[in-house]
Design brief:
By secondary structure, this protein is an all-alpha fold. It contains 37 helices and four strands.
Length: 834
C-alpha cells in the first residue's frame, strides 16, 4: 500500500474561515501580522499572537484576519485559497497533512499541479509557524521509493538554500550524482516554470509601480505650481536625450506653466503653490541646521581617534569613555535628523530624490542646494534638477522593461513586492530560484538608470494608503514587502552588500503606515539591528506598552511589556530597552496632549486651524438655501413621482428610493457639509497633502478615474456614472462647478450610507434609474430654446440631488463647488467673495 493510501489527506471542500497563522518566521512574520487589519491601526495590526515554538506545541484558537485570497493579486488567488484552507488545521493536523503532501507532490499523478500548489501552501504556512523542516525521510517506511528519493533530494536542496539562499549553488553542492540526475532535473524543471511566472508577474508589478511613482512625482511638482502636463513633457524630453540643465532652466523661466505666472513674480501672488514653496524652504532650513549639528558631533567624535601605520584609525583604551559619550551624542543628533527628514518628506516627497547623492549614504551629507533660499526660481531650479531626471529615468526604465532590454528583477522593490504577492517563503525552492534570477538579471549598467534617490521615490510611492491598492495589493502587504528581511536582502543585490541608505527609515515608515507617530520608536528598534521576527515582536510589545499607558497606566500590562522589551533589548545589546521606551512614550504622550489644541494644516492652505476653516465655510454655507422645508424645484418633481406605480414598472429602483430621501436631506444639510469639509481638511493635514489630492486618494487614486471632456454628452455622462470610481469633470475645470464637486458628493453619500461600496452603488443606481438607457426607459419632455426635447429620468434624479439649477441652492454644484475651490483649493475658478 502506498504512502498516499496509508494516509488520507484532509483536503476539505468546506469554505475557509477567517483563521490565521499562529506566528511567523523571518520571511513572513511581518506579513502574518500586518495583513490582519489593513491600514486601520498598528495596535490591531500587530496584536499579540500565540506562538508555536515547536511542532509539538498545542493548537490554540487563532484570531480573525482577512483571508489570504483577499490579500494578493489575481494570479495568486488559487495558492492563497489553499493557504486559507490549510491554515484552519490544528498544529497536529497540519503536520500530518504536511507529511502526506510532501510525498504526494513528489509523484506525478493526475492531479500533480494541484498537489504542488498545496505543498507550496504548506511550505508558506510552515515557515510562518516556524515549524522545523524535515531534513530526511526514511525510505524504508514508505513503499513509493521514487517519491521518497525525489523528496529527500528536495529536502537536501532546501537545506542548502536556507544556508546560502541560492537554488543553483545548493544543487551544485550535492555534485549532481548520475543516479540522482532525474530528480534534480524534475526540481529544476518546476523551478523554471515558477521562474517564468515570477518574471511575468514582476513585469506587471514593475509597470504599475513605475506608473504610480511617476504620478506621485508629477503630483508633487504640481503642488509647487508647475503645470502637471508640462512636467510630464519635460521628463519625456530628458528621457529622449535633451540636455537636463537646459530643460530645467527653460522650465523655471517659462511664464505660462507656473501657477500665478512665472516664478519670478509668483511669490507676490501668495497662492497655494507659493505657500507650498515657502513651506519647503522652512523645512529645509531646519534640516540644514540639524545637518550642521550632526557634522559638529561627528567632528567631536573624531577627536578621540588616533592613527598608526600598524593599526590604522583606532580609539585608545584611555579614550573609550569619552568616545562612547561623543558617539552617543552623534547618534542622537543623527536620529533627530532622520526623524525630521521623515516628517519633512510627508509634506514634501521631493526630498526623497535628494538622497544618496554622489554615493554618499548619510542624510547629513545631502546637499540641499537652494531649497531654503527663499527665492522661488533658485529653489525650483534645484527641485527640478533633482526630480525631473528621475521622472525621465522612470520613462527610460519603463521603455527598457517593455522592450525586454532591462529585467524588472533589477528593481529591488519590484522583487520584494512580487515575492510578497506570490507568497514565497524563505528557504524554499522558489525563494532560491528568485535569488538566482535576480543575480542573473543584474545589469552592470543599472546604476546609469536607477539612482538611489529614484529607488527611494519608487518605494515611498508605495508606502502610502493607496500605493498598494494601485497595484492590486493591500497596503499592509506592500508596506511589509518593503520592510521585511527579504526586502533588505533584495536591496543588497543592487547595493553590493552595502546597506541601502536610510532603509531603516523607510522600513520604519512602512511598519507604521497606519500611525506615523510610531516612526521614532520603530526607527530606534530597527537601528538596533532588529529585523524579521525580532522586529515584529518588539513592535508588538511597543504598541502594547503605549496602549497600556494610554489606557490609564495599567501597571500589570506596562510591567509585562517593559519586561518583554528589556528581554529583546538584552539579546541585541540594548539593556533596559523597555524602561527607556516607557520614558519616551510617556514624554511623547504628554507632548501629544499639549498638541491636541491644534491640528496640522494641509500644505499650502490659507487656514492654520480648524476653527479658522470652520468659520469661513460656515459663513458661506449660511448664504445658501438648504434644509428640507423649502425644496429645490428639481426635487419637487421627484417628490411628485408616484413611487408605487414607478416601482411596478421599474422594480430595480426599489433600493434607490429606499435611501434617496436620506441622501437628499444630507446634501441640503449645511452642518453635515461643514463637518465633511473639516474632516477632509484634517485628513489631508495628517497625510501632508492637499485636500484635493486627499479626496482623490480616498477613492483609490487617479488611476481608473474617468475624465469627462468638454464635449461629453449625456450618454457619456451616464456611462461614467456606471464606473467603479467617481470621475474627474474636466468639462467644468475652469468654472465654479470645478472638477471634483461630484467626487465630494460621493464622499458625502459614503458618510450618509456608512459605506464606500454603497455610495458607489447609489451612483450606479441613479444611472440606471427609470430603465437607464434601455428601450422604454422613462423620459419626459422639456422645452429648451423653443424646442421640446426628451429628458431621461436619471437626469432628473441627479439634478434633484447634486445639480440643482437655481442660484443660491446649497445642492447646486456651482455653489458648493465654489466653496471647495476657495476654501480647500480644489481645481476650478472661484468667484470673488463680497
Amino acid at each position: 500500500m502506498s504512502a498516499e493510501r496509508q494516509h488520507e489527506s484532509s483536503r476539505s471542500p468546506a469554505p475557509p474561515t477567517r483563521a490565521t497563522q499562529q506566528d511567523a518566521g523571518p520571511a513572513g512574520v511581518v506579513l502574518a501580522l500586518q495583513r490582519n487589519a489593513g491600514n486601520r491601526s498598528v495596535a490591531r495590526l500587530l496584536a499579540r499572537h500565540p506562538v508555536i515554538a515547536s511542532p509539538a506545541a498545542p493548537a490554540t484558537a487563532p484570531p480573525e484576519h482577512q483571508l489570504w485570497a483577499e490579500q494578493t493579486t489575481e494570479p495568486n488567488i488559487p495558492l492563497a485559497q489553499e493557504v486559507d484552507r490549510l491554515e484552519q488545521l490544528s498544529a497536529d493536523a497540519f503536520l500530518r497533512e504536511r507529511d502526506i503532501l510532501e510525498l504526494r507532490a513528489s509523484t506525478y499523478g493526475p492531479n500533480h499541479d494541484q498537489d504542488v500548489r498545496e505543498l507550496e501552501a504548506i511550505e508558506f504556512i510552515a515557515t510562518n509557524r516556524k515549524v522545523t523542516p524535515h531534513t530526511y525521510i526514511d525510505p524504508y517506511k514508505h513503499n513509493d521509493q521514487q517519491a521518497v528519493d525525489l523528496l529527500n533530494t528536495r529536502l537536501v536542496i532546501e537545506a542548502g538554500i536556507r544556508e546560502n539562499g541560492s537554488l543553483k549553488q545548493s544543487i551544485d553542492e550535492i555534485k549532481r550524482p548520475r543516479y540522482n540526475e532525474h530528480n534534480i532535473w524534475a526540481i529544476e524543471s518546476e523551478a523554471h516554470e515558477f521562474g517564468e511566472e515570477f518574471k511575468k508577474q514582476a513585469k506587471d508589478i514593475a509597470v504599475k509601480m513605475l506608473k504610480r511613482s511617476l504620478n506621485e512625482i508629477l503630483d508633487a511638482l504640481q503642488d509647487y505650481g508647475l503645470d502637471r502636463h508640462m512636467a510630464d513633457v519635460e521628463a519625456r524630453d530628458i528621457a529622449g536625450g535633451r540636455d537636463e540643465d537646459k530643460v530645467v532652466q527653460e522650465s523655471v523661466d517659462a511664464p505660462g506653466v507656473w501657477e500665478g505666472g512665472s516664478l519670478e513674480h509668483s511669490d507676490a501672488n501668495a497662492g497655494r503653490a507659493s505657500k507650498h514653496r515657502k513651506s519647503l524652504a522652512a523645512y529645509v532650513t531646519n534640516l540644514r541646521a540639524q545637518q550642521q549639528i550632526v557634522e559638529g558631533r561627528r567632528k567631536d567624535m573624531a577627536k578621540w581617534f588616533r592613527h598608526s601605520s600598524q593599526m590604522g584609525d583606532y580609539v585608545p583604551d584611555e579614550n573609550r569613555a569619552g568616545y562612547r559619550a561623543a558617539k552617543e551624542r552623534f547618534d542622537n543628533s543623527y536620529k533627530r535628523l532622520a526623524l525630521m527628514w521623515t516628517h519633512a518628506e510627508q509634506f514634501h516627497p521631493v526630498l526623497a530624490s535628494f538622497r544618496g547623492q554622489h554615493g554618499q549614504a548619510g542624510l547629513d551629507l545631502v546637499d540641499l542646494g537652494a531649497l531654503d533660499s527663499g527665492q522661488s526660481a533658485a529653489q525650483m531650479k534645484d527641485v527640478l534638477a533633482s526630480v525631473l531626471p528621475k521622472a525621465a529615468d522612470i520613462y527610460r526604465i519603463y521603455a527598457r522593461i517593455q522592450s525586454g532590454d532591462l529585467s524588472p528583477l533589477t528593481l529591488p522593490p519590484v522583487v520584494a513586492v512580487t515575492k510578497a504577492a506570490m507568497l514565497v517563503p524563505n528557504g524554499s525552492i522558489r525563494a532560491g530560484k528568485v535569488k538566482d534570477m535576480v543575480e542573473e538579471a543584474h545589469d552592470t549598467k543599472v546604476s546609469t538608470y536607477i539612482a538611489e534617490g529614484l529607488l527611494a521615490l519608487i518605494a515611498l510611492a508605495l508606502v502610502i494608503p493607496t500605493g498598494g491598492a494601485s497595484l492590486g495589493i493591500p497596503i499592509a502587504m506592500v508596506g511589509v514587502a518593503l520592510s521585511a528581511t527579504t526586502a533588505y536582502e533584495d536591496w543588497q543585490t543592487y547595493k553590493g552588500d552595502k546597506m541601502l541608505a536610510n532603509s531603516a527609515l523607510d522600513r520604519a515608515k512602512a511598519l507604521s503606515v497606519a500611525d506615523p507617530s510610531l516612526v521614532p520608536f520603530i526607527f530606534d528598534l530597527i537601528t538596533l539591528g532588529l529585523d524579521g521576527a525580532g522586529l515584529v515582536a518588539a513592535v508588538r510589545e511597543l504598541v502594547a506598552l503605549r496602549k497600556a499607558v494610554r489606557a490609564g497606566e495599567d501597571a500589570a500590562e506596562i510591567d509585562k511589556a517593559v519586561e518583554q522589551l528589556d528581554k529583546i533589548g538584552d539579546e541585541h545589546g540594548a539593556p533596559d530597552l523597555g524602561k527607556k521606551k516607557l520614558q519616551e512614550i510617556r514624554a511623547a504622550e504628554a507632548d501629544a496632549t499639549v498638541g491636541q489644541r491644534s491640528v496640522r494644516p494641509p500644505p499650502g492652505q490659507p487656514y492654520w486651524t480648524v476653527d479658522e476653516l470652520r468659520a469661513a465655510v460656515r459663513r458661506d454655507l449660511a448664504k445658501l438655501r438648504g434644509g428640507s422645508k423649502k425644496v429645490n424645484p428639481e426635487w419637487a418633481r421627484i417628490m411628485n413621482v408616484n413611487r408605487a406605480e414607478h416601482l411596478a414598472k421599474y422594480p430595480d429602483d426599489r433600493w434607490l428610493f429606499e435611501v434617496i430621501d436620506k441622501v437628499w436631506k444630507a446634501r441640503r444639510d449645511p452642518e453635515r457639509i461643514e463637518r465633511l469639509i473639516v474632516k477632509l481638511w484634517t485628513e489631508a493635514g495628517e497625510n501632508g497633502i492637499s485636500p484635493q489630492k486627499q479626496l482623490i486618494r480616498h477613492f483609490g487614486g487617479p488611476e481608473g478615474m474617468e475624465r469627462i471632456p468638454v464635449e461629453a454628452d449625456d450618454d457619456f455622462f451616464r456611462k461614467v456614472l456606471l464606473e467603479d470610481k467617481p470621475s474627474i469633470d474636466l468639462a467644468f475645470l475652469k468654472t465654479d462647478h470645478g472638477a471634483l464637486i461630484h467626487m465630494f458628493d460621493e464622499y458625502l453619500v459614503e458618510d450618509v450610507l456608512d459605506s464606500r461600496e454603497l455610495a458607489m452603488r447609489f451612483r450606479k443606481a441613479i444611472a440606471n434609474a427609470g430603465g437607464g438607457d434601455a428601450a422604454g426607459a422613462r423620459k419626459r419632455l422639456k422645452e429648451l430654446n423653443g424646442q421640446m426635447i426628451e429628458i431621461e429620468f436619471y437626469r432628473d434624479v441627479w439634478d434633484a440631488l447634486f445639480d440643482a439649477y437655481g442660484p443660491g441652492q446649497i445642492n447646486r454644484a456651482e455653489e458648493l463647488g465654489n466653496i471647495l475651490i476657495e476654501h480647500l483649493g480644489f481645481a476650478g475658478r472661484a468667484r470673488p467673495r463680497p
